Prior knowledge:
Helix content is 27%, strand content 15%. By secondary structure, it is α+β, with helices and mostly antiparallel strands. Among the domains are: 112-148, Roll (SH3 type barrels), CATH 2.30.30; 149-206, CCR4-NOT complex subunit 2/3/5, C-terminal domain (SH3 type barrels, Roll), CATH 2.30.30.1020.
Amino acid sequence: MAERAALGSGLDGEIPPLRLTERDLFPGSSAPGPPVPPQPAVTEVNLPPTLGACPLGPSPLSKEQLYQQIMQEAAWGHMPLPSDSERIRQYVMRTPCPLLPFHHHTPPHHCDSIDFYQRLSTETLFFIFYYLEGTKAQYLSAKALKKQSWRFHTKYMMWFQRHEEPKTITDEFEQGTYIYFDYEKWGQRKKEGFTFEYRYLEDRDLQ
C-alpha cells in the first residue's frame, strides 16, 4: 500500500530508509551504557634533580672538588676516538723528488742527546714538551728545562721558575714571586705571592 501511494504521488526516485535512534525517540534520556568513573585531578610537581642525590639539599663543594668537576667536564668534551688507538701510518710519496744539495738529507748529529736540547731556546723546549707528548723528545725537553731551574706543577700542568728567593719556605710549600709559562696564551708571565705546594712538584730524577 505504501508503495502504491509513493507511485501515485509521482516520486520516481528511491525513498531512503528512515533510521531512528533511541535518542530521537526519547529526547530526554541518554543512551544506556556503563557508568563513567570520575577522573581524579592531576597535579604536576617539579622536583629539582639534586633532591634525588641530596635529600637534605646540596652541600657546598671544596676548591679541590670544584677543580675535579671542571676537569671531568673538560674530559667529557674531549673523549678519545676509535682512531686514536690506530698506529700512525707513515706517509709515502707517490712521486718522490730529489732534494737540493743545501737541504738536510739526514737528521742533525746527536739530535737525540741532552746536549743538543740544551742549545735550543726555552720557547722551543716548551713547544716540544707540549706538542710532542709521549715521545723521547718530550722527555729530553723536560730534562733540559729542569737544568734551567724550571719546575713542573702537576696541578696546573705548567712550568714555574723562581723570580727571586721565596719569602716563606716550609716543609710543605714555599711562597714568593714566580715566572710561569702559560701554554694557553703562549708566553711567560709573572705571578706574585704564589704558593707552590711541594705535593704538586714533579721531582722525579730524569736519568
